[in-house]
Amino acid sequence: MARHSAFNSREVRQIAGASLLPFRTSCKGPVNTSKISSFEEEGEDIIDEAISYYRANVLFRNYEIHGGADRILLYLTLYISACLAKIEKTPNPKDAEKALQVMAFETFPLPGQAGFPFSSFFDKADKHEELEELRAYMKQLREETGQRVCKVGFTPEGKPNKFWTAFAKRKFMNCAI
Q1: For residue 172, what are the contacts with CB-CB under 8 A and spacing of at least 6?
Q2: What is the pLDDT of residue 112?
Q3: What b/e sequence results for 37-52 when a residue is b if at least 16 CB atoms lie within 10 Å of its CB, and e otherwise?
Q4: What integer is the mean pLDDT of 88-109?
Q5: Mean pLDDT of all residues belonging to the chain
Q6: Which of 3, 98, 110, 172 sits CB 3.0–4.6 Å from 53 for a disulfide?
């Protein structure tokens, strides 16, 4: 059975059916780190949850959505797969960080646009302003996720961690970014 987000019960703003959950970040963007005091006490945010559930969830071909946080978890699982594929091809953590930074800032489709991998799981955004807000949120989410995946994707010696990169070849729900 696939793992679902513990943050589904949180009352947060949603755009296109996705919860805009706060997370710890050092990256610039719409998520303000001062708003996450309750998450710091818990010790885990949506990115930590996505990384910890990744190896279990990537094995499933079907995923039942239980809330807006599951939609973010679904997207992050696919993004982590793309990050691991980049890590597998880079010789050291420094180069991987650069490659993941570039990947985070690449143009990417949003829910309701052609090319978005999980259009059937997301709603279409009502307004253009909401779509731009979602783009900024997801860009910051991608950047922070790339930084954290880079930390677990390499061993302390600086070599790709085979226990993570082995999952880079798996396609999550037959999708790719």
Answers
A1: 57, 58, 60, 77, 78, 81
A2: 87
A3: eebeeeeebbbbbbbe
A4: 95
A5: 90
A6: 3
Q: What is the 3-state secondary structure (H, E, C) of 92-145?
A: CHHHHHHHHHHHHHCCCCCCCCCCCCCCCCCCCCCCHHHHHHHHHHHHHHHHHH
Who has greater pLDDT, 99 or 35?
Answer: 99
Torsion of Cα atoms, 165 then 169 then 170 then 176, to 10°: 110
How is residue 82 written in tokens?
């793309």
Reading the block at residue 176, the tokens are: 């790719």
Residue located via tokens 């646009």: 113
Q: At which residue do the structure tokens 């919860």 appear? A: 19
Residue 137: left if φ>0, alpha if ψ -120 to 50, beta else—which one?
Answer: alpha
d(CA 162, CA 98): 20
Dihedrals φ, ψ of 15, to 5°?
-130, 130
Q: Which residues, in sequence order, are CB contacts of 104 under 8 Å at separation 6+? A: 139, 142, 143, 145, 146
Task: Look at residue 14 and give its three-state secondary structure.
Answer: strand
Which residues are 15's β-sheet partners?
Answer: 18
Write out pLDDT tens, residues 111-161: 989 899 998 899 988 899 999 999 999 999 999 999 999 999 999 999 999
